[in-house]
Amino acid sequence: MADPAVPPSGSIPAPVPSSVVPIVALDVADGSAAEALVRRLGSHCDFYKVGLELFAAEGPGIVRWLRAQGKAVFVDLKLHDIPNTVHGAARSVARHGASLLTVHASGGAEMVAAAVAGAHEGAAEGAAEGGCTILGVTILTSLDGAAVGTAGGRPPVTVETEVVRLARVVREAGGGGVVCSGHEAAAVRAANGPALGLLIPGIRLAGGAVHDQRRVMTPSGAASAGARWIVLGRAVTAAADPPVALAAVHAELSGVTG
Ligand code: C5P
After folding, report:
1. pLDDT one-digit tens code per residue, 95-138
2. pLDDT value at residue 7
3. For the structural domain made of 21-257, what CATH number should be given?
4. Which among 52, 68, 73, 83 could disulfide-bond with 114, CB atoms 3.0 to 4.6 Å apart, if both were Cys?
5. Domain extents for the chain?
6. CB–CB of 126/160 below 8 Å?
């Protein structure tokens, strides 16, 4: 459904550089739908997220295709396995040219460190410019403190405390950043400083539809909270005119950080 916050199509200004990098989520079923969206957004988007659905459908070919279009790629596989397996998977993903890859921080420091090492090796083997940064997923935005406690066989937890604790695991294991909601970003930043890049999903333009997300934030709110990257899903992809919606995001970001 069209997002009511997005104005009708008109002249679309060119993106103004800002320190926050917008990433559009290719949450689509197959390569042809992904290709249509990438072509529609054209030069308005240089960075795409490939998640489990698209990666399962198309494999690493979709990453190579995006790289061939000159786009940077965030591969959001949220890996969680024994260190040796995660090392190999991270190495393979980085070899295909991904710039960002997610692993679950709850997999532990040894697993995160294995991912970092694998990504480093794979990026070198694939001659991937800029390398592949490992991001730790802290607490999924679909979980609350009670659900996290139940899953771990313990009383309800405070989400912010858990997110900060897991972010520290990622930093100490050599990870380059964490995925967290905008609402925990300031606490993570305060505890870890700028060394850990923050990637914030759940972004909505002011007044836009929230969909199934619980804790959303505007692009400028995420920028103020310290985001290095923001992930744009339906705020752009479900808009009546995705390029116009993305231009509104760029305009908001340039007002904050430009
Ligand atoms: O459409 P929407 O903006 O809600 O999509 C958000 C994107 O960010 C989806 O691709 C989703 O998988 C991802 N994501 C998230 N929350 C997290 C991690 C990733 O919404 N904690």
Report:
1. 999 999 999 999 999 999 999 999 999 999 998 788 999 999 99
2. 45
3. 3.20.20.70
4. 83
5. 21-257
6. no
